[in-house]
Every structure is written in structure tokens, then in C-alpha cells.
Amino acid sequence: YQSKPQQQNQSFLSKNIKSETDIFEFMNKALARCKSLRNEIVNTSLDSGNKATTVTAQTIAHLLNLYDEISNELCLFLDGMEFLRFTNPSEDLRSAAEEAIHEFSRYLHELNTDVPLHKKLQEMMNEKQAFSQLSLSQQRAALLLQRDMEKHGGVHVLNDLEDAEKSSKSTKQKRNAIIELSSKVDMLNSEFIREVGAAEEMN
Asked: What does the pLDDT average to over 187-198?
């Protein structure tokens, strides 16, 4: 089963992606959108400096929506490129789609190890009064997002390291190592799938 946005995205790609250049222009637009949303999240202060002013549930809900928009951008792009990689008749376009998947997946790993992004999520959840006023689905979404970042990027460990160390240089090195390793795993997985598909075609 495919959601309506997925179907619309695949239809858009089929009509508008005609060359490798189109793929990377599409990718750059998606990246720019994600980075803009990410910056809006981390630059939104939950500390007004006024103890009489409390953080509202509306503010937290707005930030959660921004996280959700990032997730939506990631999924639509990656799902769309997977669709092109497996269905487009052009070998050049399939190859470009695979390259774009690897590059965009690397950005996904960067987000999963993004300490400021994780800290902002923790801040939101620590605002107990405002957070409790969110719907149960919103609270669950925040919790699942936190768990995903910690499971796939180990960002909570990086967070603790950054707080414990006077210099963030060592933390950055560890973060880069995680990103590189995760990206390598993605590439090996893609290579495995490609080789299995080629073997099945030969048989």
C-alpha cells in the first residue's frame, strides 16, 4: 500500500526527472528545505528569560511539526529515488538515483547524530506542563523520534560526551566516525541488493 503523497511524488518524478541533473537539483532543493527546518528548530528558544512566562503547548506542537516536516522531506525523497532506481529504464538515471540516495542518506545520518537537534527535543519533553497538554499521538511521536535518534545515531552518547568534555573536537571526531560507518553500511547494503538482483536475472 502506498500513501497518496507517495503516489503523487512518484507521478511527479516520472514526469519531471528526465536527466541526472534533474535528480541532483531535486536533491539539493530537498536538502535546503531540511536544513532550513533544522535551523528553525534549533534556533527557537524555549527560554524566554522571564520566569513568569511559561512555554506553551502550541510552541512545542509547532516544533514537533517542523521535525515531522523534515521526516516527510526525507521519506519522500528517498522513497522517490528508490522508485527511480528500480523502475526507470535508463541505466544512467538509475545510477544517478543510487548516488543521490547515498548522499541524502549521509545527511540522514548527520541528523541522527545532531546534538543540538536532540537537545532541543529533550528541552521540549522536559517542559512537563506544556508537553502534557499535547495529544497522546503528539507525545508518542516525540518519544519515538527521540528513540530513533538514539538508536540509529547514538546521539545521546555524543550529547553526554559533549557535556563532559571541555573541547567538542573529540565529540566531532566520534560523530564523523559514526556517520562514515553508517554510510558505509548503506553502500554495502545497496551493493548486496544489486548483486542479488543481477544473480536472479541471470538465473
From this structure: 64
